[in-house]
C-alpha cells in the first residue's frame, strides 16, 4: 500500500508542476506541496519496507500458531552475511541455518534475512545453536526466537546433536505461494500505471491547456492565455459579475451613495458614514467579499454630501460593461485596465448634475474620457486617439 501511495504521489507531483507551469493556479501550488509531503513520507517507508520485507520477522499470531502446532526446533548458524543495508543503525543480515526438525522431514538448510541487533551479533556467529519456529509445515521458512522459553533456551545451550550435525541440502522454497510474513508482491507495471492515473487526475482541471501543449503551443503562450482567461472570469466587466458584486457591497453601505468606482477586479463604493452624516466612508468588494475599508481619504464638505447622493438602485449595472467597450470605440483607445465612475457632478452653488457614468481610457500615447447618462447616451467626450470620434468632438 505504501508503494502504491508513493507511485500516486509521484504522478501527482509531476502533474502539479506541469499544471502550475501551464495555468499558474494556486490549486497546483497547494497540490504540489501535498504531493511532496506524501512522497517524502512514503519514500523512506518504501525503502525500509523493501529492506525489511523479507527479514524473517513473522506475524506474532502466525508464530504462536506454529509453536502451538509443535514446530519449535533447533537450528545451527552456518553462515552470516551482511547485506549492506541497515535499519536504525542495526545491520540487515542473511543468516544461513541448518534446521533440524523434531519429526517428519530431516535436517535442511535455509536462509533468513533479518535485522540483527549489534548486542546479539555474537549469538549469530557460525556454530551457534538457536531456537527457531517453522512457520509453515510445507515450507522451509523459519523465524529465529530471540526470547525462547527457559526449556528451549536450555536445550539450545546444552545441545550437541544439532551443533555437530553434518551440513544438509538446501530446501528451496516452492515457487508457488507466498512466504510467511513476506510482503505481498505487486507487479511492477502497477506502479507506473498508478503514477499515470494520479497525474491524469491531478491534471484534469488543466486538461485543455495540456491538450494545447500536445498540439505544439509553448508553455509561455498557454500560461498567458490561461491567466487572461482567469482574469476575465473574475473581471467586473465580464457579463454577470458586476451586479452580484454591487448588491453585496450595497447591502453594507446602503443604497444612497455618493460615488461608485468599478475596476477590473474590484468595486469601491463611497457613502455617508451613517444616514444623514456629513462624512463618508468606503466599502469594497474584492475576491468575493464585501467589507468596509474605512473613512474616505478625501472628505467632502459636509453641506455637499446631500447634493452628491444618488440612489444606486437607479443604475442598470448590467449595461455598464458595454459602456466601457463603447468608450474604447469612441476614443480609439483599447483600454487594457478599464475603470469607470458613477457619480454626480457638483460645482459650487450650481444644481448637481444627474448621476453619470464616466469612463476614462488611456494607452502609452493618448488618453480620453466619455461621460454617459444612466441610459447609455453620450453626454460629452474629450481626448482620444487622433481621428477618433472623441478627438473630433473637441
The SS-based structural class is alpha+beta
Number of helices: 12
Strand content: 25-35%
H/E element string? HHHEEEEEHHHHHHEEEEEHEHEEEEH
Record field, number of beta strands: 15
Describe what you observe in this structure.
The protein has about 400 residues and is of the alpha+beta class. It folds into 3 domains: about 1-50 and about 190-215, no CATH class; about 60-165; about 240-390, no CATH class. It contains 12 helices and 15 strands. The protein has helices at about 1-25, 25-50, 60-70, 150-160, 160-165, 190-205, 205-215, 220-235, 240-255, 305-310, 320-330, 390, and strands at about 70-85, 90-100, 110-115, 130-135, 140-145, 255, 260-265, 265-270, 280-285, 290-295, 310, 340-345, 355-360, 365-375, 380-385. An 8-stranded antiparallel β-sheet has the order 10-9-8-7-12-13-14-15. The chain has a 5-stranded antiparallel β-sheet with strand order 3-2-1-4-5. Helix 1 runs antiparallel to helix 2. It is rod-shaped, with a radius of gyration of 40 Å. The protein starts with a helix and ends with a helix.
Amino acid at each position: 500500500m505504501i508503494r502504491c501511495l508513493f507511485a500516486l504521489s509521484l504522478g501527482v507531483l509531476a502533474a502539479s508542476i506541469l499544471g502550475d507551469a501551464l495555468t499558474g493556479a494556486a490549486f497546483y501550488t497547494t497540490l504540489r506541496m501535498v504531493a511532496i509531503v506524501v512522497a517524502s513520507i512514503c519514500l523512506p517507508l518504501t525503502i525500509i519496507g523493501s529492506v525489511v520485507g523479507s527479514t524473517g520477522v513473522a506475524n506474532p499470531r502466525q508464530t504462536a500458531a506454529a509453536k502451538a502446532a509443535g514446530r519449535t526446533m533447533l537450528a545451527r548458524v552456518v553462515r552470516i552475511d551482511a547485506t549492506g543495508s541497515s535499519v536504525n543503525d542495526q545491520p540487515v543480515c542473511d543468516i544461513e541455518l541448518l534446521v533440524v526438525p523434531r519429526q517428519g522431514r530431516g535436517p535442511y538448510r535455509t536462509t533468513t534475512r533479518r535485522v540483527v541487533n549489534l548486542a546479539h551479533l555474537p549469538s549469530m556467529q557460525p556454530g551457534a545453536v538457536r531456537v527457531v519456529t517453522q512457520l509453515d509445515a510445507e515450507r522451509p521458512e523459519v523465524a529465529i526466537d530471540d526470547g525462547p522459553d527457559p526449556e528451549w533456551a536450555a536445550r539450545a545451550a546444552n545441545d550437541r546433536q544439532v551443533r555437530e550435525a553434518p551440513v544438509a541440502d538446501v530446501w528451496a522454497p516452492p515457487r508457488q505461494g507466498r512466504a510467511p510474513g513476506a510482503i505481498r508482491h505487486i507487479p511492477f507495471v502497477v506502479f507506473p500505471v498508478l503514477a499515470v492515473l494520479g497525474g491524469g487526475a491531478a491534471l484534469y482541471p488543466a486538461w485543455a491547456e495540456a491538450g494545447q501543449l500536445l498540439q505544439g503551443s509553448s508553455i509561455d503562450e498557454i500560461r498567458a492565455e490561461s491567466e487572461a482567461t482567469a482574469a476575465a472570469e473574475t473581471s467586473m466587466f465580464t457579463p454577470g459579475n458586476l451586479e452580484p458584486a454591487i448588491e453585496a457591497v450595497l447591502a453594507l453601505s446602503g443604497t444612497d451613495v455618493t460615488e461608485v468606482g468599478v475596476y477590473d477586479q474590484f468595486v469601491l463604493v463611497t457613502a455617508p458614514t451613517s444616514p444623514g452624516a456629513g462624512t463618508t466612508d468606503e466599502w469594497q468588494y474584492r475576491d468575493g467579499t464585501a467589507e468596509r475599508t474605512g473613512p474616505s481619504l478625501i472628505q467632502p464638505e459636509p453641506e455637499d454630501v446631500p447634493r452628491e447622493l444618488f440612489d444606486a438602485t437607479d443604475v442598470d449595472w448590467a449595461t455598464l460593461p458595454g459602456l466601457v467597450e463603447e468608450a474604447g470605440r469612441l476614443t480609439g483607445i483599447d483600454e487594457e485596465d478599464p475603470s469607470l465612475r458613477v457619480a454626480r457632478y457638483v460645482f459650487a452653488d450650481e444644481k448637481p448634475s444627474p448621476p453619470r457614468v464616466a469612463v476614462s481610457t488611456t494607452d502609452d500615447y493618448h488618453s480620453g474620457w466619455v461621460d454617459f447618462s444612466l441610459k447609455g447616451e453620450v453626454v460629452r467626450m474629450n481626448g482620444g486617439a487622433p481621428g477618433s470620434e472623441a478627438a473630433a468632438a473637441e
